[in-house]
Amino acid sequence: MKETIKKIVRQAATKLKNQENWPDFENFEIEADYPKNEAFGDFTTNAAMGLARFLKKNPLEIAEKLATVIRLQPAMENIFDKVDVVTPGYINFYFSKKYLQNRVAEINEKKEKFGNLASDEKAMVEYSQPNTHKEFHVGHLRNVIIGSTLVEIMKKAGQAVTAANYIGDTGTHVAKCLWSLEKFYSEKELDAAENKAEFLGKAYSRAATEIENNESYEKEFKELQKKFEGGDEGLVALWQKTRQWSLDEFMRIYEKLGVHFDVFFFESEEEIAGKKMLPELLKTEVIKRSEGAIIANLEKWGLGVLVLQRSDGAALYGLKDIPLAIKKFEKYEIDRSVYVVDVRQSLYFDQLFKILSEIGFEKEMAHIGYDFVTLSGGEGMSSRKGNIVPAEYLMGQVGKKVKEKFPDAPNPDGIALGAIKFFMLKYSSKSKIEFNIEESVKLEGSTGPYVQYAHARICSILGKAEEQGMSWEKADLGRLTHEKEMLLIRELDKFPALIEELSKSYEVHKLPYYAIRLADKFHSFYNDLKVIDAENLELTKARLELIEATKEVLRETLRLIGVNSPDRM
Questions:
Q1: Which domain holds residue 458?
Q2: Are residues 57 and 179 in the same domain?
Q3: 23-73 pLDDT per residue, tens
Q4: What is the C-alpha to C-alpha distance for residues 260 and 83, in angstroms, rounded to an integer?
Q5: What is the pTM assigned to this prediction?
């Protein structure tokens, strides 16, 4: 609809240009958006003010002229019934009741396909990226929730999306864990560990502490790391065994979260590719040898220096990510590559993208950063310090709270997952999160259970109507004229535009807020108006059709977030 309004305004401006003999304004930008106050219409544009600055004329006068021409355009028929002008020069558009009533029928006809868009774009979203030999913590949980939601939104927008996971299965952290296992634990202790992923995390944390406080341990660790990187059979076998423990744990958590990946990349494999690529990289101006190391000098762009390979031959992240970035585009034939990685890596991704550009690999790539997660009252997490909050712990605690609060719920795990995903997702990715378990499961406010309850409430109303033998397939939607009905339909109408916006902006936190606003509008409608009225069956049918449409959009919004839609709670 935003594009329709832009087109209408541009056509009106072009007509006025010819009538008024205005100078050319081909590059004139037209913006259309929702007004901050719903009383000022369904859409608004400040086009007149932009045009006024260009023409050096009164914006209110230009707005009045534009509105006069707009009102006469054929495109206005059956969509808007009012266009007005307010100071200092905004033009406000108001949907006609007929347009909104028809929108209800369209939603119920298309069902879950309402809001689907068409696109020929292929994209890859890389997210999760946990390190083996460390526990999967709440920070990883936030990454997964952002990434999986973005994948679903982009698919809804018609894009062919490949969901990718890049597992950190090599590097210093792995070597430290292996050193700790060899130094402090017997093989018998390893195999006897009940929670092997937790055991590996503690072994790594112990290694980090011991090595930091003991110079002889630092020397021992360096020797082991060299042996491991040199392919020592015993260490490689231990690595393979313990690596699989971590991978098994990751897969179990992904299954709980309802997350699927199309492709997995592994750091150990990309390291080999990066080292093979080094001779070619060294031919470029930006990559050179320096004191035994290999670096990318990016100082002239204000991006500092990125070490690709240390003087001891160890490959760092950049040397692995360069060939992987190229492989993504060449092997999977994508048009766009998106990385969901914590915000502390923002500089690194600026460096990576600049290196790729300088070696002649100009492609569309984006980094979506996200900030820290702590539990309410907790400190920042660190696997090295051993003070992380495991994802499983949080999921278990929220699950317990849900069972206390909703003892009769048929699927408490689904409600718990909804509570976690909503709480994690509703904040801008660049905001820190202090996760409050009690707050997350409330039935009121900006929570998953609140939205799920709205869906369950609608199911209950529709179920009662069916029990009374009612059918609303051929309802007269012209009876939907009440202000609360119109407000609810207006919110439903925003869904397709939101999908299009988020598929480009990646601001996935706007999706749960849309679900919350829609639930708000439904509850306000239901609290003020009677849906099932035996004395007014035609109006009852129309309202049942309206809440059926609301149910469809709520369910699809929850699906995109990865949350179930309960019939009762």
A1: 406-561
A2: no
A3: 877 667 788 999 988 888 999 999 999 898 888 899 999 999 999 999 988
A4: 47
A5: 0.92
CA torsion through residues 111, 113, 116, 118, sign: negative
φ/ψ (deg, to 5) at 157: -80, 5
Q: Closest Cα to residue 562, out of 459, 433, 488, 451?
A: 451
Which contacts (CB < 8 Å, 24+ apart) does range 523-530 have?
A: 523/454, 523/457, 524/484, 524/487, 524/488, 525/484, 525/485, 525/487, 525/488, 526/457, 526/461, 528/484, 529/482, 529/484, 529/485
Name beta bridge partners: 367: 339
Contact 33, 43 (CB under 8 A): yes
Number of H helices and E strands in the chain, helices first, is 21, 14
How many domains does the chain fold into?
3
Return d(Cα 277, Cα 233) in angstroms, integer: 26
* Same domain flag for 80 and 135: no
**374 in a structural domain:** no
Query: How far is CA 388 from its chain centroid?
Result: 23
- State whether 233 and 298 are in the same domain: yes
Q: What is the pLDDT of residues 539-569, one digit of tens each?
A: 999 999 999 999 999 999 999 999 999 999 8
- Encode 127-137: b = buried (16+ Cβ within 10 Å), e = exposed: bbbbbbbbbbb
Tell whether 445 is covered by a domain. yes
Lookup: tokens for 41: 């219409």
The mean pLDDT of 387-402, rounded to a whole number, is: 90
Tokens of 467: 């029990």
pLDDT band at 386 (very low <50, low <70, confident <90, very high): very low
Q: In 161-290, which residue ranges form alpha helices assigned H by DSSP?
A: 172-184, 187-192, 196-213, 215-229, 233-257, 267-281
Mark which of 95, 116, 140 sits at the end of a domain.
Answer: 95
Query: What pLDDT is attached to residue 377?
Result: 64
Average of per-residue pLDDT values in the chain: 93
pLDDT value, residue 381: 43
Q: Please determine, for residue 254, whether its predicted confidence score (pLDDT) is greater than 60.
A: yes
Q: Which residues pair with 122 in a beta bridge?
A: 160
138 & 48 share domain? no
3-state SS assignment for residue 345 = helix
- End of a domain among 95, 115, 135? 95
Query: How many other CB atoms are found less than 10 A from the CB of residue 454?
Result: 25
